[in-house]
Amino acid sequence: MISKQDILRLLHRPESEHPILSVFLDTSVNSVNQRTHQVFLVKEVARHEELDSDREGHHREALGAAFERVFRWLEEEYDEANRGVAIYTEIGGDWLEAVQLPVTVRNRTAVSDRPVIGPLAQALENDHRHGIVVVDREHLRLLLVYLGATLAEHEVRTDPYPTPHDEKGGGEAAKDRQKRKAEEVRHFFKEFALEATEFDRRYHPDDLVVVGTHENVVHFVGFLPPHLQAKVAHTDHAPVHATPTELLERLTPFFRKQVETEEATAADRLRDRVVHRHLAVSGFAATLERLQEGKVDTLVMSRDLERSGAHCRRCGFFLARRDGSCPYCGGELDRRVDLVEAMIRLAEEQEIVLEFVPAEALADLDGVGALLKF
Ligand SMILES: [Zn+2]
Question: In angstroms, what is the span from residue 323 Cα to ligand 1's centroid?
């Protein structure tokens, strides 16, 4: 399972003497149940004229050998349960590292000095680690879910007293039984609340979703400590023994809606602050400048944004404009830099919050902006 650690490891990978081929593939199945990433990859290889005379198995071109490693990895290692992959390999070396994703990424290849991490950051940043609590009067299940996969599952078993169905008796006896059952449920729910607290302490989910009948959910949430009650983002109904897949299917519309709402909020908050000139900037030039000054608190970007810019070979500053020389030191400029990737790297290095939003949400702000610390 991919994690933030994968991004950080790739981010801090020591610079290689070889250029890196980064390959991102949408490996999800289309409407006619086919995967089309191979077609994309074959077209990408065809774009490189120098590979025309290259031969499979006897590569004269290091890039040809790199692509062949990618094809081989797909054949041997790709797990079809995943919907996206990122593959990195050296051109002229033999290092290869791949990350499989339960979410799609846009098809893309890039050759650069370092592994391209932007699409991975985008796949990871907006999703939550959800704690799913499934409860009825005798059972508790706790699941940690991230990017559509179950990372941990914990079940609490109880030993309830049997409820006699055939026991004869008057109204008084029935009332007693009901009372005993209610007392037992209270006892179990207290224990369940402790278990849920321990689960939260151990796995740090971003929020909790409580699943069960309306009556059980309301009753159980009342037993949770206030900090966990505040974390309950959603409640829903599903059978207590539903499989993780069934639960996820049931909850996916909520998860999707939650991300949409948060993205809209992020875009609105940025726009509002830009309009009121309150600790915010928008557009590439201003955002890039503040980012390099270490003043950014939250970087907000359109998804799949593309922009190239420049990088000063002497002082290392990134610039949104590409003409002239470096305004800071007069140094010579490298003019074909992937500015979006540079900004995401800067944000990850500074551990800045990154929010990706739909392109139309930031169209009026040139696709990028930042909330500032000071
Ligand atoms: Zn410079």
Answer: 13
**Band of the pLDDT at 65, cuts 50, 70, 90?**
very high
Beta bridge partners of 93: none
Percent over 70 (pLDDT), the chain: 96
pTM assigned to the model:
0.85
319 Cα: distance to centroid of ligand 1 (angstroms):
9
Q: Which of 65, 69, 64, 108 is nearest to 86 (CA)?
A: 108
The answer to whether 35 and 148 have CB atoms below 8 angstroms apart is no
Q: Is the pLDDT of residue 107 over 90?
A: yes
> Is the predicted pLDDT of residue 56 greater than 70, yes or no?
no
Ordered DSSP codes for 101-127: ESS----EEEEESS---HHHHHHHHT-
Residue 289 Cα to ligand 1 midpoint, Å, equals 13
Q: CA–CA separation, 97 vs 118, rounded Å?
A: 16
pLDDT at 166 over 60: no
**Angle, in degrees to the nearest 10, between helices 171-203 and 214-221:** 60
Distance 307 CA to ligand 1 centre (A): 20
CA 279 to centroid of ligand 1, rounded, Å: 26
* d(CA 53, ligand 1 centre) in Å: 41
- What spacing in Å lies between the alpha carbon of 320 and ligand 1's midpoint? 13
